[in-house]
C-alpha cells in the first residue's frame, strides 16, 4: 500500500490528527512524484555548518516513511527521531536546530520524537521558517528555544478527527446499506450511515482527552497554564502575537542571526532587546516568587489556626468529659435523677457556677451542737432532774479539764 492510500485509510478510520488544514496539506503533496522516488534520491539527514546541525521538518507529519520524503512535503516521526539521534552522536555537531515548516499531522508516532529530544544531550533549538502548527508546534516546544521568522505561523494547538458521511449520495444512486452487528460498537463510524449522538460523543471524548494532554504538554514546556492554552481554541497566530502569548522566544531571520544579534547587543551604546526580555522575565519571576511566598505564609497561618482549633476542640472534649463525670457523681451523691434540661444547663456553666449549683443541689444535714468535754447527755439530763448542783459540778469539772 502506498503512502497516499495509507493516509486515506487512516483518515477514514478516524485516526487522531494534530494537523491544521489537513485537506489542503494533502492536496499540496505530489504523491505521483513521491511514488517515483527511490532511496538513492534521498537527501542528507541534516547539514552541518560551524558545528550546527540543521534538520529540516517539512510538510505532513506521519508515523513513518519508507524513505526520506521531506522534499515532497512529508516527514516521518520515526525518521525525524533517527536524524536527531544521528546528530546527537555526530562528534562534528555541537548543537542542533530543527528548521520547521509544517502544518502538523498524526498523533500516532509523536512519542518517537519526544523520546529522541528527551535523550538528546546537545543544545537543541527550533527555527520556524514557515509554519509550526499543531503537531509541529508540539515538537518545537520540547526544544530549548523557539525562534520564528517574522511571517511565520504558530499555533493550531489541538486535535481533530475527520468523519465523512455518504448516506445522501448513496440514496441518490439507489444504494441502501444495512450493517448487521453483534454489538452496537462493532464496525461503527462508517461513512455509509449517519453517526448517532452516542457515537459522536464517543469520538469527541477521545479528541478531548488527547487535546488535554496536548495542552498540558505545551503548558509544561512553555511555563504557561494548560487552561490558557485550551482557551486559544486552536487559533493560529503570526510570530509577533505568538511571542506576546509566550508561545515562542524570539523573532529573527534565523537562529544564527538571533545569536549574532545577542552578541552585537553587548555594545552598551546599542539598545539590547534581550536585556529587556531578561528584565521582564525577572519581574515575572519575582512576582511568581511573591505569590509563592504569600501562598506559603497563608498556608502556615492556616496550619497554625487548624492546630489551635484542634487543641481547642480537644480541651472542650476533655472539659465536657470531666463535667459529665461530675454531674454523674452529683446524681449518685444526692440520689437524684437530673432532666436533660438540667444536664444541659450544668454543661453550659463555668467551673464557679457549677460549684455553686453542686452545693445547692446537695441536702443540708442538721448538726447537733457538741457538748463540752466531760459532760455527756446523761449528765445534762441528770443536772436538770437533780438540781443545779449536779450541772454546776459537771461544768466545773469540764473547765478544770480544759485548764490542764
Automatic annotation (TrEMBL):
InterPro entries in UniProt: ClpP/crotonase-like_dom_sf, Peptidase_S49, Protein_C
Coiled-coil ranges per UniProt: 269-321
GO biological process: proteolysis
Keyword line: Coiled coil
Domain Peptidase S49: 119-264
Gene3D superfamilies, alphabetized: 2-enoyl-CoA Hydratase, Chain A, domain 1, 6.20.330.10
Record-level Gene Ontology MF annotations: peptidase activity
Annotated segments matching region Disordered: 365-387
Family: Belongs to the peptidase S49 family.
Protein name: Peptidase S49 domain-containing protein
Organism: Psychrobacter piscatorii
